[in-house]
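1st attempt posting a full record on here, be nice pls
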Amino acid sequence: MQESDLPALVQQVLLAAFALAVLFGAIAQRTHFCTMGAVADIVNMGDWGRMKMWLLAIAVAVLGFNAMVAAGWVQAKDSVYAAPRLVWLSNILGGLLFGFGMVLASGCGSKTLVRIGGGSLKALVVFFVLAAASYATLRGITAVARVATVDQVALALPAGQDLPSLAAHLAGPQGIGRRTWALVLGGAVALALVAFVVARPDGRSAEVWLGGLGTGAVVVAVWWVSGRLGHLTEHPVTLEEVFIATNTQRMESLTFVAPLAYTLDWLILFSDKSKVLTIGIVTSCGVVLGSAAMALLTRSFRWEGFAGVEDTANHVVGALLMGVGGVTAMGCTIGQGLSGVSTLALGSFLALAGIVAGAVLGLRWQVWRLERAA
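the predicted structure (as tokens):
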């Protein structure tokens, strides 16, 4: 590739990612796709409908990503999730903080963007607080604390922490290769999840399948945009391998914690020419636009404000916990729960378990507060 061709490719990558994020926002608004809501439905009502939508999305993302690995299009090691260093304590503790925080804030990072598109001023406040907290945990005061404490606890896995790479390493040079393991393990996980989803009638509704298939497919498509379309084996200027238009300099898919910080940073320092658009920034904006378009189309757009001081405090504290916890865990319900898990990385499974456990604790705490008040 010539240097003169690079701006056109960057624009193509950003436009593709933005369009996919608009689709994600529209689907999430239409189907009420929400991880916190899915956990709350089970804890409070025993309703598995939205959880099965989320599990179906995981199945699609896992199958799609690992099919691309098997085809040689992408590699898990090129993402931040499958790094050889497994920061297991950060994944778990960060997940717990994020899960508890998303209950207080009425939804995770992606749901916050969807709610902004639907007219929630509460979610707009959550966005600013979450973005500031995540930025501080990326590069500020809480970043120093994170790096000096929980990030020090880690396991070194030379083959990488994704299951196909681990399986291939254990099998040895004469065993099944990583690409074959990706297809086998990815197919097995996806099949098991789909079987669970369709086992009962609550997993066979059109809404479950629209939300699950649509969301999972968007995650896979963004992986392709970043890892295939936006991948240069040799940058025309630096002559190094690069994944263009990414904040991490690695292959990326949807995630909504650190990108919110980068979005706020871009908005504040817009006149600084070094602040350029990235996949994370355009997807954050795209989700809001897609959600707003669907809300207006279905006439569900409603302005929403805080009910009082306690409601405000809960959302602010929840946003702080999500910002700190999401960066510590290296992702959110979408970043780790879908994009990360699709790579079959061990850290993503740990972070996801922490998020779900934190959400359950948050819901139990809310019930305790209500009972105490009564």
